[in-house]
Design a protein that fits this description.
This protein has helices at 49-57, 89-99, 104-118, 133-144, 163-177, 190-196, 214-227, 243-252, 255-260; strands spanning 2-14, 20-33, 38-42, 64-68, 74-77, 151-155, 182-186, 199-204, 207-213. The chain has 270 residues and is of the alpha/beta class.
Length: 270
């Protein structure tokens, strides 16, 4: 279905107007995605998982490496892509659907389905700025699952919204995963990764740490976290810092400081 070979992504970090440094979010990532499989991607925050999905979706062009074949349609299903507070829920649904790859007439045809699944009543026609966080999640998820690409990219999309909607959204995602669609799932919920995924790709500091059977790779990942006294899903370092601080660490040549100042998963190209 898809082959990734030696994928590497570099970001420019600016300390000030005169000085900048480089940060490699991904380095030499290679794997094969099979037709109809659900591939899990795991690793701590800040190791490059979301960057990899952005490359596969065509949002980011890698600095090195190739994705083949390039004509495959892959959509990153992430709630609230492109949403704007002054637009109504309906207008944001149209905008979000088009940003996810649908033509305008396609998203218009799906608006009734999106409105019904979101189940936010008259607020669907009100500005997004009037929404609660739960209502935003409902709308964003409803738009995301209305897309039907060849490859579905799920970035922490299991169980979003309030308690009632979490069950509804989780059931919809499970239906997608079990429908013989080709899926790449990024999640910190390791039990669900084992349950849904045929194989798992573990990324650590932008590199492939392990790739293979889901139970075996998740077991290795848990053992790694225990040995280093960290919890799965914790940042790959003591936490988020400013880009200036990261640039300073790189320029200092201090490898420990560099490792400790890796940014969280959005990586600077949000």
């Amino acid at each position: 279905m898809l082959q990734a070979r030696n994928i590497a992504v570099r970001y420019q970090l600016y300390r000030n107007i005169f000085r900048r440094s480089e940060y490699w979010a991904l380095q030499d990532i290679s794997f094969d995605l099979l037709q109809g499989e659900c591939l899990g991607v795991i690793g701590r925050n800040g190791v490059g998982k979301t960057t990899l999905l952005n490359v596969i979706a065509g949002i980011i062009k890698p600095d090195r490496g190739t994705i083949t074949p390039q004509h495959r349609s892959a959509s990153l299903l992430s709630p609230q892509i492109g949403f704007m507070g002054y637009l109504t829920g309906q207008e944001n649904a149209i905008l979000g659907g088009m940003l996810l790859g649908l033509r305008k007439h396609e998203i218009l045809d799906r608006l009734p389905e999106i409105e019904a699944f979101a189940d936010i009543g008259e607020f669907f026609h009100q500005p997004l700025s009037t929404y609660s966080s739960g209502m935003r999640a409902r709308l964003g998820f409803s738009v995301a699952v209305s897309i039907h690409p060849e490859i579905i990219l799920l970035d922490e999309l299991l169980g979003v919204g309030d308690d009632d909607f979490k069950k509804k959204s989780s059931e919809r995602i499970i239906q997608l995963i079990k429908s013989d669609r080709t899926v790449i799932l990024v999640s910190h919920q390791l039990s669900q990764v084992v349950a849904f995924c045929n194989r798992v790709l573990w990324i650590e500091n932008g590199r492939v740490k392990a790739f293979g059977n889901s139970r075996q790779v998740v077991r290795e990942y848990n053992d790694f976290c225990k040995r280093h006294s960290i919890g799965p899903g914790k940042p790959a370092g003591p936490g988020r810092i400013s880009l200036a601080g990261h640039a300073a660490a790189l320029e200092s040549g201090d490898e420990r400081a560099e490792a400790a100042t890796r940014p969280a998963d959005s990586d600077g190209k949000r």
